[in-house]
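Data deposition worksheet. Section B asks for the primary sequence of the deposited chain exactly as it was used as input, without tags or linkers unless they were present during the calculation. Section C holds the resulting structure in token form. Section D is free text for depositor observations; keep each observation to a single sentence. Incomplete worksheets are returned to the depositor.
Section A, Depositor: J.P.
Section B:
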Amino acid sequence: MRFEIVTIFPEFFAGIFEHGIVRRALAEGLVEVGIHDLRDFTHDRHRTVDDRPFGGGEGMVLKPEPLAEALQSLGIQPKSTSKISQPEGGGGFNPRIQPIGSTRALAPEKEHTTVILLSAQGRPFTQAIARELAALDRVVLICGRYEGVDERINQLYCDMELSIGDYVLSGGELAAAVVVDATMRLIPGVLGNEASGEFESFGVADAEIATDIEGVPRSQHGSGGLLDYPHYTRPAEFGGLRAPEVLLNGDHLQIRRWRHEQQLRKTLANRPDLLKDAALSEEDRRLLDAIREEGE
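Section C:
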């Protein structure tokens, strides 16, 4: 899999991809990352990439011409303008929303890519989206800056806008690093233990998990969209607190039940919004009701 990052600060990424599993994945050839300096696609002596916004307002906007040239250098052609909704003269524009599965084929025909504009106006980046991206051949990430990117680049070239959270960054570089890290670790072979990408927060439900160790009862629970359970390691006692006895007794069935209950407790406490779409059984719902009663 290959990531292409278009940015005006290529040096930003110099250290980010030189540590941990990202570095190892790059070294082993499981992942490739191309960093493209947007200023290389300008044609004036000042290497200008931005200009004032039409209609007035604060800040500057990234110009469309350098971005278009950068994308075309990667083999990405504009969409037919007949398929693009034009904003009404006096009204607001409803951005086109396209599912990730609708990827474009490039040469060779088997290669699929998606072009993403990193923007505070994008849809939230989630673990589910990371899993879909990890199944592609190539992901192109456009790092916005200043007040943003000329919307025509979004309309002509981008398959989706992504935001990593409800806050505003100085640019899309940090967001690009987040998307690369979260997606890359789901590619087969990147993690030392394949199960690590399944038994964690925002993961899939038990029914969707094939990973198992032959002959050893599984003590983890697929999260089914819940948060991960708390983790403990040696020593058994630290700071006057002892690790839960259930984790020390070797009973895998009890451990699995305890961990799933802790997932429900952690999710209810920290991210109750996730419960709406989580894969919950009737037993889970009864347990959540009991936990809520405890709190009251």
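Section D:
Strands lie at 2-7, 32-37, 50-51, 61-62, 104-106, 111-124, 138-143, 160-163, 237-238, 241-242.
The radius of gyration is 23 Å.
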